[in-house]
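Lecture 7 notes: from sequence to structure.
We start with the chain below.
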Amino acid sequence: MLKSILFACLALMGCSYVLGQERTVTVAGRAIDERGKPIGKPLAILYYPPCRDCFEHLLESGLSEDDGVFWVDHTASSFQGVRLFIEERVPFGFWSPLRGGPHSTLARLPDYRIIPIRPKKGQTQVNLGDVLIKLRFGRVRIELPYVLRKYAPQRDEDQALNIKLRNKHGRLIFFGWVTKVAFDETSSLVNLALPRGVWKVEFFGKDPEGRLESQRLTLRIRDLGCKRITLNNGRQSERACT
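Predicted structure tokens for the same chain:
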């Protein structure tokens, strides 16, 4: 009987059982931008240190609304080390190589919002009020040169186009496949979502004979608008998205 209860706790709470009195605390707030306007459906994740001898460490993701209101519950006997990671969701129709949440590349950026959660004894609700989200996504539609379009995934085929993303100092932030959701229906545009700043991007693929074909560009994300980048013979031009 005790074994069944323990496994139920693992499934529901993600972090085994603890000796002591547990309580459920609801963390709530509203995500806003620098102008005080709500950021719809923010992504809120509670991080807590893994418990001893746990075989699985699951983190609670919160619920959120279009008006920026979010809430997430956590049940434990200790709230030491509990932190809330909150971010804007990647805009619909775009893909970001920067993954969010704890231990992520996105969380290492200086504007990412991480809030320690320290409920008082007996407290069951933590109201954060308005939470400013500084890290926002700009949108970029990159028109691939013809030589790279053949590496776009077709139907159920695996991805073949790689991307390297570096920050303005040249530090490698991401290296991997460009996922299928990043391409438009013609497989000629890659739709990226990146935070404000300077990013160095390299697309590349290998032809059947093993020769490397690549294209480099520098993206300067200054605002949250959408711009379209055209690559032609090593040059890049940009205009507003239509």
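Points to note: Residues 1-19 have pLDDT under 50 and may be disordered. The CA atoms of residues 23 and 75 lie 5 Å apart.
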